[in-house]
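Risk register update: the risk of archive-format incompatibility is retired. Evidence:
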Amino acid sequence: MKTYHDPVLAEAAVEGLNVLPGGRYVDATYGGGGHSALILEKLQQGKLIAIDQDKDAAANVPDDYRILFLNQNFRYMRNFLKLYGLLPVDGILADLGVSSHQFDQAERGFSTRFEGPLDMRMNREAGLTARDVVNEYPSEKLADVFFLYGELRNAYKIAGAIDKQRKVAPINTTTQLTALLNKLAPRGKENKFFAQVFQALRIEVNQELDALREFLVQSAEVLRPGGRLVVISYHSLEDRLVKHFMRSGNFRGEIEKDFFGNPLTPLVAVGKTIMPAPEEMERNSRARSARLRIAEKRE
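Archived output:
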């Protein structure tokens, strides 16, 4: 199987799925197929449903009768599982990070390392691009994007600088944006600053947090009792949603109870949060912020 992405916490994630030889599993973020390859090693007559909204991922799918590849956003997982008569499933895995392949393609606009168009679409057939957000959003809405999704304290200054420049000429490329905002980056923390700027735009373009909320709710519905949900997150916004939902079944993190005091939660956390070993972080810089959480559907 070809891979264009070094999967983070691969062994731990697949181990957390507790794969049954004849089970039915979903790799909700197929990418380069690294996690799926490990799942297939444990499957015999089971089924693997691989989902990815990026068409490039299709090139990595092996000719294997056990795999069904869906070129879709994972927010539509439940509908497609129902369409293909694949409910319920025994396990679901999601790696929420941007793939190395996407970062390394300058024309996708995900990385500050290259000059490229301000695109950032996971699904290149989607309408909204980062260029649209930067050039067309009202200044206040743009500030909200940087504050809420980038957790940038100087969000209004960032939006103001962009608004001033775009009145002179459109901001079309990644390097135009970074050059414009360089004076606002804290000295010595430039890389982190621009990572937060790009993260905010990417989340807005792809509606990542809304999609994640929908995916998590559906996961609890489509899993069989005793089935596992395994999620790898990379920043506090998505990790907080995962943690709260696994703990309480909602995104507030507050556990509701029935009349008898029993928790009304569809999932129960399995073990503690897993973080990459120093060796993996040294080998793969993307792993440094990764957090792996596992939950099981209540019987």
